[in-house]
Design a protein that fits this description.
A hairpin with a 3-residue loop joins strand 2 and strand 3. The strands form 2 sheets. Strands 1, 2, 3, 5, 6, 7, 8 and 9 form an 8-stranded mixed β-sheet that branches. A two-stranded antiparallel sheet has the order 4-10. The chain starts with a helix and ends in a 6-residue tail after the last strand. The chain has one domain: YbaK/aminoacyl-tRNA synthetase-associated domain (YbaK protein, Alpha-Beta Complex). The protein is α/β, with parallel strands linked by helices. It is built from 5 helices and 10 strands; from the N terminus they run αβαβββαβαβββαββ. It binds 5'-O-(N-(L-cysteinyl)-sulfamoyl)adenosine (5CA). 5'-O-(N-(L-cysteinyl)-sulfamoyl)adenosine binds next to helix 2, strand 2 and strand 7.
């Protein structure tokens, strides 16, 4: 399998997108570290979080770095009974990326049931997301990311206690 960062790079190339991946000496494995590494607001970092719906389906939630994804709101949005965060192994098998480097695009599985886009990201014109490793991120117009992922905008977060 291609190195995970190469999958992201190839994805941009095949979609004719001139997006520069920033490979950083410092870790970007959490939103806080990523914001510090690139010098942007915490909220501009998009976390690509993996959830398991009804113990079966995969859902990706793109969440602002200063917000906490709320599984109850995700369940409500998707009319699901149960929603839980995926464990490390599930994240890897369902996206092809490891925790800390999950990109919002170029997943190895096309069996992702739904993609949700935190409505609070509308605060930012440009956002940053992981490029497949815990040392790489890329900037992208929020609207471009929304269109590329085909995600649905929804109110799925709460303000307090952001995820890592
Ligand atoms: N590269 C950064 C900024 S884009 C990044 O990937 N951030 S993240 O938030 O998307 O990835 C870390 C997230 O992984 C945490 O918010 C948390 O939801 C999840 N996570 C961390 N450890 C675990 C774990 N042991 N099991 C399940 N999820 C975890």
């Amino acid at each position: 399998m291609a190195k995970s960062i190469d999958r992201v790079r190839d994805f941009f190339r095949s979609n004719n997108l001139e997006i520069e991946i920033h490979e950083l000496p410092d870790s970007t494995r959490t939103a806080q570290l990523a914001a510090e590494a690139v010098g942007c607001e915490l909220g501009q970092i998009v976390k690509s979080l993996v959830f398991v719906l009804d113990e079966r389906d995969t859902v990706l939630a793109f969440v602002a770095g200063d917000r906490r994804a709320d599984p109850f709101k995700i369940a409500r949005t998707l009319y699901a009974s149960t929603v839980r965060i995926a464990n490390a192994n599930e994240v890897r098998t369902r996206t092809g990326f490891a925790i800390g480097g999950v990109a919002p695009v170029a997943h190895t599985s096309d069996e992702i049931k739904a993609k949700l886009f935190d409505d609070s990201l509308s605060r930012f014109e440009t956002v940053w997301a992981a490029a497949g490793t815990p040392h790489s991120v890329f900037p992208i117009a929020r609207q471009t990311l929304l269109e590329l992922t085909g995600a649905q905008i929804a109110e799925i977060t709460s303000r307090e206690e952001p995820d890592q």
